[in-house]
C-alpha cells in the first residue's frame, strides 16, 4: 500500500497558487484514475490501485505547516511504512516547471515537509518536487501564495503532467527507475 500526499492549503483563496502544486498534481492524478476525493475531519482522501499496487491519495486540510498531522494519521491507520510515502510539493529552489524526485532528505525550509518529518519521525520518504522558482523582489511568504503568471502556465501544466507520470512510474517500477527516467 502506498500513501501519496499532495501538499497545499485548503480553500478557494489558495486554489491554483504556487504552494498548492501538490494539490494540483493529486487532482490531475485522481482524474486520470477516475477517483473522487471524500472529505473527512482534516483531510481529503481517495483510494485506488495501479495493477496490483494499492494507494491512498491524501490532501491534508490543516494548512501547510501542519500537513504532517494528517499524514501521520493515515500512515498509522493504514499501516504504511515511510518508504511507501510519496509527498508531492512545491519547491522554491527549482526553476519554475522543473521536476525532481528524491528518496529522502531534509525539509529544505519547506514547512509542510518539516511538519511531516516531525510527525512521522524520519526524513526517509519519497518526494516529488515541483519547481516554482523565486522572485527576489517578492517576500517568500507572499510569493508562494501567489498564482502562477500567464507566462508560467504552460510550464506548470507540463510539470504537473510529468509529476503524474512520476507517480505512475514510482508505483509501477520503483523509485530508482522513476528517478532515472525523470531527474
Please, what is the average pLDDT? 96
Oligomer: single chain
> Which CATH architecture is right?
3-Layer(aba) Sandwich
Q: Mind telling me the CATH superfamily name? A: Peptidyl-tRNA hydrolase
Continuous helix count = 6
Describe how the helices and strands are arranged.
Blueprint: E1 2-6, H1 21-32, E2 38-39, E3 43-50, E4 53-60, H2 67-78, E5 85-91, E6 99-102, H3 111-120, E7 126-131, H4 140-144, H5 153-173, H6 175-182
Parallel strand pairs: 1-4, 1-5, 5-7
Antiparallel strand pairs: 2-3, 3-4, 6-7
Helix pairs in contact: 1-5, 2-3, 5-6
Search tags:
7 strands, 183 residues, alpha/beta, Rossmann fold, globular, seven-stranded mixed sheet
How would you describe this protein?
This protein is of the alpha/beta class. It has a single domain (2-182), classed as Peptidyl-tRNA hydrolase (Rossmann fold). Helices cover 37% and strands 22% of the residues. It is built from six helices and seven strands, in the order βαβββαββαβααα. The chain has a seven-stranded mixed sheet, sandwiched between helices. Strand 2 and strand 3 (43-50) form a beta hairpin. Helix 1 packs across helix 5 and helix 5 (153-173) packs antiparallel against helix 6. The model has no long low-confidence stretch (mean pLDDT 96).
